[in-house]
Amino acid sequence: MKPKTVLKLVVDVFMTVALLFLMGYQFWGEAPHEWVGVGMFTLFILHHVLNASWHINLFKGKFSALRILTLCTDFLVLISMLAQIYSGIVMSRYVFSFLSSGSGMALARRLHILGAYWGFLLMSLHLGLHWNMILGIIRKAARMKRHSKVRSIISFVIALVIAGYGVRALIGRDFVTYLFLRSEFVFLDYSEPKILFYMNYLALMGLCIFVAHYSVKLIQKCKKRMEVSS
Questions:
Q1: What is the DSSP letter of 184?
Q2: Structure pTM?
Q3: How many domains does the chain have?
Q4: What sign does the CA torsion over 7, 13, 16, 18 have?
Q5: Quick one: which of 73, 79, 80, 63 has its CA closest to 126?
Q6: Domain coverage including residue 21
Q7: How far apart are CA 170 and CA 187, in angstroms?
Q8: Residues 6+ apart with CB under 8 A from 119
Q9: Residue 192: helix, strand or coil by DSSP?
Q10: What integer pLDDT is reported at residue 98 of this predicted model?
């Protein structure tokens, strides 16, 4: 495996861990939340630097359905990240306290909620859209040369169970309320066991990956059928 590919994978893993950490604000406190947020932004920049070729070729080639879907998702991820950066700076009490004027807190709070909840789902969808590539790296690292139908079926069943639990978590954690800003205050259960919280959020991430990954497969299958029929 090429060093650059390994570095990309390491950056993506750290971004995923940071994302999960940030969603568990109530467990770690405000100062660590802010510092990890800065780290997340740094990793986000590094991720784009390592994928510079994507930016260079952004407007080249054909815009297939899959490419348009990926571009739209990436654009929305960027918007959610910018919302988080702005609102995080405005509300900062530690890292950027010297920049915070104290004004615009109400707007910043709303943007932070929207950026956090939409950002979590969108980044998970982004991960799912590139899941084939990630699986390819894992297979190569594990030296899995042959395609196994049994392994594929087992993987699908496990993914389906995780996605099902993710739907339950989506409803149980009242995600829709925060996604559409029906409440300007997030209910945080400080007594909830960390393992239960992160199981829920990993399942939510798994749900998004499942939806995105199998949407890619469906789009590719439809494309092949259209090519054969034409």
A1: S
A2: 0.91
A3: 1
A4: negative
A5: 73
A6: 3-229
A7: 14
A8: 19, 77, 80, 81, 83, 84
A9: coil
A10: 86
| pLDDT 10s digits, 115-127 | 999 999 999 999 9
Residue 187 tokens read as 């209910």
Six token digits for residue 10: 């390491």
Task: List the one residue out of 54, 53, 117, 110 whose CA is nearest residue 87.
Answer: 110
What does DSSP assign to residue 15? H
Structure tokens given for 64: 């297939």
| Residue 114 to residue 106: CA distance in whole angstroms | 13
**Hunting for tokens 């029929």 — which residue is that?**
229
> Cβ atoms within 10 A of the Cβ of 80, count?
21
Question: What average pLDDT does the segment 163-182 reach?
Answer: 95
* Terminal-to-terminal C-alpha distance of the chain: 38
pLDDT at 36 over 70: yes
- For the record, the structure tokens of 6 come out as 């390994």
Helix or strand or coil: residue 229? Answer: helix
